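Two records follow; treat each independently.
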Amino acid sequence: MARTLSNMLPLGTEAPQFQLTDTISGEVVSLSDLKSARATVIMFICNHCPFVKHVDAGLVAMANDYQKKGVTFIAISSNDIDNYPQDAPDLMKVEAERVGYTFPYLYDGTQEVAKAYDAACTPDFYIFDGDLKCAYRGQLDDARPGNGRPVTGADMRSALDEIIEGNLVSAPQIPSMGCNIKWMS
């Protein structure tokens, strides 16, 4: 299992715009359609990564808690489906329904969105404030497959609480770790 760290997009960077197909609804949606005036969480994930599978239930729990507070969650898969067919859009929909995602699961078939966000791994997390400026990028928490630590979402929950209150994120921002995005050759 490869261990790749986030590239850590500079804080204050404006969220790159995109227009992608939501594999759950089949609709083409844009960041402008989905963004929140409070906070927008963008997650680069995929179906097969053991790091994503390890935190799936925690992602769903966090989304369920914070969507009630006006936070938008958006998941994006950018993996090369020719070499990783288990990450294909039709299977993304199946996985989203199986896990219980309450947020769009978008397919980035050209990988342009992942490149625009400087995404490196799955999962890779970004939180943008109401002005779509990067306020947090880093890990969900310190749980990893096999390390025995529980998935709590502590780092992102703390960041979301501060952003919702209109504060800067005060805690250190630690890179996320996971499998590398499967880039097309």
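The next record belongs to a different protein.
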Amino acid sequence: MTISFALHPDGARAEVLDGRMRLQLADSLAYIKTSIAEQWGEEIPGLDLVVSNMQSGLRYPPSTFGLYYEIAFALFNGDDAAARTLIAELIQQKPCRSNESSVISLGQASPADFLRYQKFINSDPTTSIRIVALADDRAEYALTRFEAVLQRFKTVLPETYAEFSELIREIILVGSDKLGAAYDFDGGSFYMLWGALFINAEADRNDVEMIEALVHESSHSLLFSYTIDEPLVNNSDDELFASPLRQDLRPMDGIYHATYVSARMHLAMSALIESGQLAADEVAIALAARDADCRNFFCGYETVAAHANMSATGRSLMDGAYTYMQHFKSV
């Protein structure tokens, strides 16, 4: 199918984009397997099966993507011993049992994945973030709560949920360690942990705010999936600009993301309001969130339009967002 750049959610498009990400991982692992055979003079038993499983369409968890990047980093740095250990761990990875998004707490992750997630989330040298496991009683409550919100999300916004469930394999509930961190972690998704969505379950959110957070983070993942062939913007990370959602100056890629995601949240809040399935107090919350999303979009768009060196992909996506948002410019 021709991949659309429209802002509106599309489950079929998301399935294709997710498939591209996974085939890229399979191809990269196949290349590593061939290179190792040439350099080490040996085949790695089990790696063929992982690659063929991926090529056949089986979906592996986000940890598999993280392992691939760790293996690549180890090989690049000439640390063959670390690469062997990581490959042995990767071979033990199992495909996801279901195509539905699962919800786990960070404490349920394996010790290796726990450390892997902490490392990748804190990989930005300009931003100190540390996630921690939830206390047992908090984790039990949060898991039940998020499962209920996911079901409501699926019922009230079926098209958005259809896209979400193609992009996100695991929602990982975490706490935020504020000691020594520059920012209190609210939520995030990361290119090198494709399919994972991290949410701070200690934040006090109602259902509308939780659905907006899920749309927010999955929209970042949607943007990641478009960057296989080229980045969204070609600006250097050394170029810093005002951001609609942060007080500090940010690289253009971050501002682009924040701007686009604001349009997606506006769209989701509008659909929630129009669903007729919200209580009166929830409608008020959704209206206030939608108004904030509108302001944030146009604040960010002004910076993007003036200073972004957008790729063809980036321009097509942002044009789709603006085509939708221009109707609300005077609001």
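Discussion point: The first strand starts at residue 102 and ends at 105. How would you locate this feature using only the token line?
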